[in-house]
Amino acid sequence: MKPIWRTPIQTLSLAALLSPATAPLVVILGLVAVSILSSWHSSVAGFEIVIDYSFDSAVLEDGAVSGFFNPSYTYADGSTGLDRRIRMERAAAIVASNISDELLPVLPGPDDTLVIRFANPKDGGGHTILNPVLPADTIIIYAGGRNIGGATLGLGGMGYVDVTWGSPEFIDAGQHRGEGPSGSMGQPADEYGPWGGSVAFNTEIVVEFEGAPTNFDWHFGETTEGLDLHYDFLTVAIHEIGHVMGFGTAESFDRYIDVGGTPLGADNSFIGPQAMAVWGGPVPLEGDSSFPLRSPSHWLAGLDEDSTVMDTTLRLGRRASMQSVDWAALADIGWDVVLIPEPSGVGLLTLGLAGMMLSASNRKPSR
User: Fold this and answer.
1) Of 93, 87, 84, 152, whose CA–CA distance to 124 is shortest?
2) In the structure, what pLDDT confidence band is assigned to residue 16 with cuts at 50, 70 and 90?
3) What is the distance between the alpha carbons of residues 348 and 341, in angstroms, rounded to a whole number?
């Protein structure tokens, strides 16, 4: 189990609030990799990410609505539940569009048993499901919202397998979707084959500003029009899906963490070969010298001028997209990434638009 990360919020002036481009407000990102498991599918080349809203049942807006993605409700910020689902699903499509892994189906028979566990988006508590059915080449992400508290925008993490028994083929499918050696239990150290995981989004974003709590809303738009003084939901959703995909959560990510610096943990880096090839050397990771044994789970805040999806902060009024180094890290984790684009604006824009066109709809502002 990995901890929730918290990064101090910088002290801001009124000018910073009113001019996010020149003096941006930074909100931290949180990660939950706790012991945990209406749908929507996004896919390319067979790989699918299914968004499941069945655990999105937190009571919100003074009891007026149940759920962050309620499709029949118009929220106080003017967005509808359908708007929110569209953006969540576009985020899933952007990630799925560049993955081509072939995962074994999980199809329990009469003599097979599988118990999966995940963080319930409604309250963060552990939840188990007996004998889920998972199609081939598919992962499930349970999505919802709740009052997480403070400046953490979202939480995301991989799911876990508590129990499997049955035929050898079923055990391989349930434990690692066929991505590990036959008969092995758990995720392999050099690959990653999850059933999925869960993500949750903060319904009450509150940032301390000049000694007073200040509320900020999400931006659910398809474009960045109107994004000023809001936090971009698409960016955060992609980020949280990245954690489900193993960034900062999988053993195959942790094997490439180089913990260093003085004091220990103050100068961490990621040394996966694909990411290093794109970056030109070790990629800086977040550091926390107070907890040097805690595995870093994000890029260093502000990496590449805040353009990366998987760094630990998101600035007010900003949309980020999957960059070459983000895709390369997924490849190092063990995913079959179709294309790691050249680290140039043209290549990244082309890939991003291709993902967006695949579905109606991603990243996380507390990662």
Assistant:
1) 152
2) very low
3) 6
